[in-house]
Amino acid sequence: KAGVTQTPRYLIKTRGQQVTLSCSPISGHRSVSWYQQTPGQGLQFLFEYFSETQRNKGNFPGRFSGRQFSNSRSEMNVSTLELGDSALYLCASSLYTSGANVLTFGAGSRLTVL
Amino acid sequence: AQTVTQSQPEMSVQEAETVTLSCTYDTSESNYYLFWYKQPPSRQMILVIRQEAYKQQNATENRFSVNFQKAAKSFSLKISDSQLGDTAMYFCASRGGTSYGKLTFGQGTILTVHP
Q1: A99 and B32 in contact (C-beta within 8 Å)?
Q2: Does the beta-carbon distance from B45 to A48 stay under 8 Å?
Q3: How close, in Å, is residue B52 to chain A by CA atoms?
Q4: In chain A, whose CA is at the least distance from the CA of B99?
Q5: How far apart are CA B57 and CA A4, in angstroms?
Q6: Which of A58, A56, A57, A69 has its CA nearest to residue A20?
Q7: Under a CB-based contact definition with an 8 Å cutoff, are residues B11 and B68 in contact?
């Protein structure tokens, strides 16, 4: 059974550009969550999608957005990149079926903003 | 709102010994869940163990067990018979009963297992 797949694994952008990251969940998982990981701020929740609807959103500026497609694949977009957006972006998928819901994480997309 | 605190930035242990990682949390929810995740140097986050707050019995998964003290809002992880492959960053996390995908993480503890 394939795990959570994130693409690209590494990318370098310059300030002001925008970036789109992709996440393919485990087959059968209908929920996708995104997290930002930095040395200073640690792991912070960005947003969560289930059945193409955003269910929860973290405390990030509007430059961070996401969406989920009918096949449960998800993308997140960061516009007008800033140096502080350099981070490891982690995607996690889950069944979203009960209180015991467990997240399975992907390997992450490492974004460097120059 | 939930907060999670890990007060030990780094810890080390000898192979085959036992180590305990500390975690305290705070939450306003009556129904919540607690987790320990492991992130090895390859960066793939892996679930180690989970605890439902309504269960009094401490969770156990092979060499990993927790000490869940609900009144004290403490959730420590004990690793028995430590192995070199246990070297990783360990994160304590919590979430509310209905916030299925929204975890609140602690700052992490880097555990190094020495041969």
Answers
A1: no
A2: no
A3: 7
A4: A56
A5: 31
A6: A69
A7: no
pLDDT digits 0-9 by tens, A53-88: 999 999 999 999 999 999 999 999 999 999 999 999
For residues A31 and A23, give the distance between their C-alpha atoms in angstroms, rounded to a whole number. 11
CA atoms of A54 and A110, how far apart (whole Å): 23
Q: Which amino acid is present at A56? A: N
Judged by a CB distance cut-off of 8 A, whether residue B100 touches chain A is yes
For a pLDDT cut of 70, what percent of chain B falls above it?
Answer: 100
Two tokens, residue A109 = 């997309």
The residue among A103, A3, A7, A87 whose CA lies nearest residue A50 is A103
Secondary structure of residue A68 in the 3-state scheme: strand
The pLDDT, as a whole number, for residue A103 is: 93
Distances (CA, A) of A46 to A19, A64, B18, B42, B54: 15, 8, 35, 22, 27
* Three-state DSSP state, A109: strand
Residue with tokens 């955003």: A54
Which token pair is A98? 């009960």
